[in-house]
Amino acid sequence: MTKKQTKAASPSTAPTRASAPVAASPAAAPASNRASRAAERRAAIVEAAMEEFIARGFAATRLDDIAKRAGVAKGTIYLHFKDKESMFEELVRIVIVPVVARLTTLPPPAGSVRDLIETFAGNFLKEVIGTRRGDLVRLIVAEGPRFPSVADFYYREVVSRGITAMRALIELGIARGEIRQKDLARYPQILVAPAMIAVIWQSLFARHAPLDAQEMLRVHLDLIFGERRTT
């Protein structure tokens, strides 16, 4: 009696089956959803805070008002922010800091220093004048003296960065011979003065005497760099 010889299939000859898709961990999807909802609530709180701060001012804004506008419980705010001040700081980081950050990451100018400054300052005016960013800047100017910690934060995150970047551009302009007044590097605030004037003027006097901020910027740069030559 003969026995049939059986041979175990080797890995190379064994039939293959399509691998089943790996199922996501049961806890992964709910965790992802919770994170998404938390991010949405945080964004809603920040948006509501901006509206309340601009409408009422920093001092008069209450967390209850922010919670109501955001459609969340007051306790939910404390899951994201420890107090009103930290909420305002987050607002500045989101709304204003990115605008100034662009100045600190500008590539070396291929053309003139004036061209680079004029392009950046022109865009800055468009993004600030008549926008919520401008409203926030005016709020800081108005209430900063009463809340030094808020003013200190704004100086660290916004003003000092902008001043450092402007000074570097001024020094480059001096080195290239584009700027003759070397003392300007000691006072880079002069370079950004039109932006601050325009922000304040817009809220106080625009209804009496509208200001062309872009044209004022051009005249200001003519005073620093000299008038452009026309061909």
Brief descriptors of the model:
single chain; 231 residues; mainly alpha; 10 helices; 0% strand; elongated; disordered N terminus
How many β-strand stretches?
0
Q: First CA to last CA: what distance?
A: 111 Å
Output the structural class: mainly alpha
Mean pLDDT: 85
Main beta sheet strand tally, sense and closure: none
The parts where pLDDT drops under 50 for at least 5 residues are: 1-20
Shape category: elongated
Number of helices: 10
Which percent range describes the beta-strand content?
Answer: under 5%
The helical percent reads 55-70%
- Topology as a string of helices (H) and strands (E): HHHHHHHHHH
Structure description:
- By secondary structure, the protein is mainly α.
- It has ten helices and no strands.
- The chain has helices at 28-56, 63-70, 74-77, 84-95, 97-104, 113-128, 132-143, 148-175, 189-204, 213-225.
- Helix 1 (28-56) crosses helix 4.
- The radius of gyration is 29 Å and the shape is elongated.
- The N and C termini lie far apart (111 Å).
How do you describe this structure in short?
This protein has ten helices and no strands.
Q: How do the strands and helices of this protein lay out in sequence?
A:
Layout lengths: L27 H29 L6 H8 L3 H4 L6 H12 L1 H8 L8 H16 L3 H12 L4 H28 L13 H16 L8 H13 L6
